[in-house]
Amino acid sequence: MNLNISLCMLLIALVLRLGGSAPSGFNYGDALDKSLMFFEAQRSGKLPLQQRVKWRGDSGLQDGFQQRVDLVGGYYDAGDHVKFGLPMAYSVTMLAWGAIEFNKEITDLNQMGHALWAIKWGTDYFIKAHTQPNVLWGQVGDGVSDHYCWERAEDMTTSRGAYKIDEQHPGSDLAGETAAALAAAAIAFRPYNSSYSNLLLVHAKQLFTFADRFRGLYDNSISSAQQFYTSSGYSDELLWAATWLHLATGNEYYIKYVVDNAVYMGGTGWAVKEFSWDNKYAGVQILLSKVLLEGKAGAYSATLKQYQAKAEYFTCACLQKNDDYNVQKTPGGLLYVREWNNMQYVSSAAFLLAVYSNYLSATKSQLNCPDGQTQPQELLNFVKSQADYILGKNPADVSYLVGYGAKYPLHVHHRGASIASVFALHYDVGCTQGFEMWYNRAEPNPNVICGGLVGGPDKNDDFSDERSNYEQTEPTISGSAPLVGIFAKLQSLYGNIGEGEG
């Protein structure tokens, strides 16, 4: 075994040693801790002394240098080393939403510090990238040249070109999502650091105005993103950003925006069965349902009821109670939305249902599905079923959260995890040398990318643990971000029933 045993492996050994009898349930608190550790493994820039993932080193320290702007920091997107602005901002929004909605649960697990740190690593970067009111740097690195190489982030030889949106080259989806992330983070930080919260709001408001005034698809302006994160539209991000800004500021301008544009931008028209880095409609509809359920809709209640009807369409479709217009499921019970990295759609859907269950419970409401009325607890049962599938209750008996449980993917499609650490192997691994020496190895990865949620099985619950099978074995920050809130909620509900599979 490689001498560079990760902290994750040590934690696993300790838990197994202390576990004693066979586990009767899942340790969601441990899964939460590992999910937050994944974000530490994905950090770009100068790593802090308190870094828990010890096989990672500093990287990307010249990002933005050619463009004379400081773009050091932020997150690598997945198993590669590109910093893609759209999924990064979505991931930070979801981390912040989890910290807001499940504040007590995360705090009770002593994880709020790590959760806020994960958010701040992203928001600090967005503040740097927002160099002028109408300028946002939206990407660092080029996906094509990056994918020619298999090397550690610490050894990067690929292009670190940076790409921006501005008035002449707009990106309403990217600017809107970044505004949403900053507004959500402002709410999350308000009880802990009010001055930072206020700073985030300044940037969020400017970015929303920029997104709304200068409209266009970001991948028309940053063409190198097209092959990797093509946007299907920006109307959902404009509504999403306005909704978060309303919640963060209480300013009527923003709620009026989502009402006035409800039909034109599809907020009350689109009934969707997917929530993701690209499609925010279900998130908007769930958030606006909260405003309605809490009796804060005022003169806007008629339109917010239309938003809520679409929120319930999504929720009922996940629960298989939508008059046959349901989200597909695998034979083993997993939501199945897309072939490539399906788990990110599972985690995001489960998160929305956990949140909506909270909203319904708090207002003593029920979910009205075409197939009958449903209690909030049934939403949580669904959330638990998806989380348990992820953690090992599935036909393959494998945990799709790397580092959790007795059996999980060992050949994860991730450059840093698949090559011995710079602290164990002290020479550079060249661009193509990495393919020859590490990518094509039959052996497991030398480093465990703890808490990474891999793409997961296919529609028949089949999974192949191979490094080249990136559709199934690559983890992403957008897949892991919703898990923080989910696991915190489940630990608060079921944590004492039975633990151990950590």
TrEMBL record:
Taxonomy, superkingdom: Eukaryota
Keywords for the protein's UniProt record, in alphabetical order: Carbohydrate metabolism, Cellulose degradation, Glycosidase, Hydrolase, Polysaccharide degradation, Signal
An example molecular function term from Gene Ontology annotations: cellulase activity
One Pfam family of this chain: Glyco_hydro_9
Top EC class for this record: hydrolase
Signal peptide: 1-21
Active site: 413
Domain Glycoside hydrolase family: 28-486
Family annotation (InterPro entries): 6-hairpin_glycosidase_sf, 6hp_glycosidase-like_sf, Glyco_hydro_9, Glyco_hydro_9_His_AS
EC number: 3.2.1.4
Catalysed reaction, written as an equation: Endohydrolysis of (1->4)-beta-D-glucosidic linkages in cellulose, lichenin and cereal beta-D-glucans
GO biological process, one term: cellulose catabolic process
Transmembrane segments: none
Keyword flag Protease: no
Similarity annotation: Belongs to the glycosyl hydrolase 9 (cellulase E) family.
PANTHER family: ENDO-1,4-BETA-GLUCANASE (PTHR22298)
Protein name: Endoglucanase
Organism: Glycine soja
